[in-house]
Amino acid sequence: MGQRLNGYKSVAPIEFLKSKMGREATLNEILLLDYLLDTYKFSPGILNMLVEQVLKLNNHKFSRGFTIKVANEWSEQNITSLIKAEEYAKKEYEKFLQLQKRDNFGEIRELTVKEKEIINRIYYKSSLDEEILDLVISYCMKINDGYIISWFINRSVEFLENHHVENRVDAQALLHTFHQKYVLNFGRETYVNS
C-alpha cells in the first residue's frame, strides 16, 4: 500500500478532520465522527478518506445529513479497504466534476457554489436514479435560462418521486406532463373570490 494511503491510517479521525478544516472540531462534528465509527464500523483510515470526500463534495462542510448519506453509500458498496475506498471516492468525485460545467444552450459556464449545493442535495436526498436526476437537471436548466433554481428543481423531483418513476422514458413523459400542467400555466391561474 502506498505511503499516501498509509497517511490515512496513521491519523486519528478527529485530528484528520481538524487538519482538513484548519480549525478545532465542534462538538457536533466530534459526535458525528463517533456516530460514524460506532454505526458503520469503518476503520479510522477509511473514515478519514470518507471525511475528505465529504469535504470535497459538500463545499468544505462536514454536515450531518450529507455525511450520513455518503456513509450509507459507502456501507452499501461494502467498502472495507483503503484501496476500495480510494477507487470509489475517485469514481464519485469524477461524476461530481462532470456536474461542474453544464451546457447552457451551447454555452459552457461554471456552476455557482449555490448551484453545486442544490445539485448535491438533490443527488443525495432523492430516491430517483442518477440518469433520471440528470434529465431533471437538464430540463430545469433549459426552463430557467441555464440556471439551477432550488424551488423549481425540488418541485420537479417531487413530481417524479410522487409518480414513482423508474426509467428515463417514463421520466420524460412525466416531465412533459409537469411542463404542461405547471410551467405553461404558471401565472395564469384564476382565483375565485370567496
UniProtKB/TrEMBL annotation:
Q: What sequence ranges are listed for the domain DnaB/C C-terminal?
A: 14-88
What Pfam families does this protein's entry cite?
A: DnaB_2
Question: What family is it from?
Answer: Belongs to the DnaB/DnaD family.
Q: What is this protein called?
A: DnaD domain protein
- Organism encoding this protein: Anaerobacillus isosaccharinicus
Q: What is the lineage of its organism?
A: Bacteria, Bacillati, Bacillota, Bacilli, Bacillales
